[in-house]
TrEMBL record:
PANTHER family (alphabetical): PLATELET-ACTIVATING FACTOR ACETYLHYDROLASE, PLATELET-ACTIVATING FACTOR ACETYLHYDROLASE IB SUBUNIT BETA HOMOLOG
Molecular function terms from GO: hydrolase activity, acting on ester bonds
InterPro entries documented for this protein: SGNH_hydro, SGNH_hydro_sf
Signal keyword on record: yes
Signal sequence interval, chain numbering: 1-17
Pfam families to which the protein is assigned, alphabetical: Lipase_GDSL_2
Domain SGNH hydrolase-type esterase residue range list: 64-237
UniProt keyword terms in alphabetical order: Hydrolase, Signal
Keyword Signal annotated: yes
Source organism of the structure: Ameyamaea chiangmaiensis
UniProt protein name: Acetylhydrolase
Highest rank taxon of the organism: Bacteria
Amino acid sequence: MMRLLIRRACVPLMACAGVVLGAAASAPDLASASVDRLSTPWWKARFEAKQAEIDKGHYDIVWLGDSITQNFEKQGGHAWDDYVPVWNRFYGGRHALNLGFKGDSTCHVLWRLDHGELAFRTPPRLIILLIGANNFGHIHTDAAHTYGGIAHIVDRIHARLPETRILVLGVLPSIRSPWVDENTRTLNAHLSHTLASGRPWVTYQDVGAALMRDGKPDPARFLDPHLVPPDPPLHPAAPSQAEIARMIEPTVNRLLADSAH
């Protein structure tokens, strides 16, 4: 039975990148609000499809996040955009589910968690959370507020799934603006030093080195410069996505106590 419970989090106040904001969530507080994107047809269709997968499946690993996670489903014709082999290599035999949604911020993940994305038949053993890049984009919430949103997510998961371990990945480096760079560093430092304190079910790992060269983000390691027209470097290319999976594999293997992949 599909659990699509549709209710709006807030009344319209302003529109931003296709997302309806509301009076209950002013811009500074938006990161910790619960906001849907049901007015975006592809997002609504994907949400419903993922609800059906949750309804009928048993999952040991759940990846939860934005387009970087959704890209694991992308099967391209080049080395830089062929992500499916990466997913199959590391997660294909592990009963894994991809809950990545392009353009989502912490507020959208919170809405999804409130509307069926925690209603598993059996609790996943591990949730891998990668979220926050879009907070520094279209909803423009700073590091402090984005940290609050991520903390709300891990606490929401634990309240519903107390036996599930959570691996939180740091927001990845990008080449967008000095403001984004500064807030990415600040957020990741706060996540590293604070998030797991008092939360033994949370593990934090920074995997930004997969996208760096000589101490700076390397455009060659991103998908976006290959696009026509090119976009600012934000999404890891498939080989960088594979490197991220390799970097976290010892942690995943330890938390699952399964065989290394």
